[in-house]
């Protein structure tokens, strides 16, 4: 079975640009969550989408947005990139809420902002 | 504000040693504590703990939760070089926004041959 897949694997952008990251969940999983992991730190929650609706948002500015498509894949968009946005962006899928099933993470997209 | 603190930050052991990793937490409306192993990129799920005092085991790994003292430990016995990784602890809250897990900073384990 394919796990959570993310694309691209690496990305280099310039300050002020925007970026779109993509995620395909495990087949049958309807929930997708996005996390940001800065080097040397644990992941930080950005968004969760379940059944195409936003179910949770972390403490991130409005420059960050996301959506989920009818096939449950998801996109994370970041506008007006800052140097501090450089990080590993992890997508995780689950059947539903964590209490029902744990999160399964993809390999992430490494974003470098110069 | 929710807080998850892991210790030690890092450690180096030799193959065959036993490792004990600590995770303490301060969260309101605690539901569960999860352990993940992160080797290069994707954190992989190890354990979910919801009840105090019940040890969960998977091969050489085991974990236990103390909800009174607000901590969990992860033990790895007879360590192998393949156990080298960052081990992440995370907590889930009742009524948390979506699938919001609050992670600790991780413990980096290096197992030398």
Account of the 3D structure:
The complex is a heterodimer of chains A (114) and B (113). Chain A is built from no helices and 11 strands. With 114 residues, chain A is mainly β. Chain A starts with a strand and ends with a strand. Chain B is mainly beta. Chain B is 0% helix and 59% strand. In chain B, the strands form 2 sheets. In chain B, strands 2, 4, 5, 9, 10 and 11 form a 6-stranded mixed sheet that branches. Chain B is globular, with a radius of gyration of 14 Å. The interface between A and B is medium-sized, with 33 and 26 residues.
What's the topology here?
The complex is a heterodimer of chains A (114) and B (113).
Chain A: E1 5-7, E2 10-13, E3 19-24, E4 31-37, E5 44-50, E6 53-57, E7 64-68, E8 74-78, E9 87-94, E10 104-105, E11 109-113
Parallel strand pairs in A: 2-11
Antiparallel strand pairs in A: 1-3, 3-8, 4-5, 4-9, 5-6, 7-8, 9-10, 9-11
Chain B: E1 3-7, E2 10-14, E3 19-26, E4 30-38, E5 43-49, E6 56-58, E7 61-66, E8 71-76, E9 85-93, E10 101-103, E11 107-112
Parallel strand pairs in B: 2-11
Antiparallel strand pairs in B: 1-3, 3-8, 4-5, 4-9, 6-7, 7-8, 9-10, 9-11
In short:
With 114 residues, chain A is an all-beta fold. Chain A has no helices and eleven strands. Helix content of chain B is 0%, strand content 59%.
Radius of gyration of chain A: 13 Å
Query: First CA to last CA of chain B: what distance?
Result: 41 Å
Mean pLDDT of chain A: 93
Instruction: Kindly estimate the percentage of residues of chain B that lie in beta strands according to DSSP.
Output: over 45%
Radius of gyration of chain B: 14 Å
Count of DSSP helices of chain B?
0
Helix and strand element order of chain B: EEEEEEEEEEE
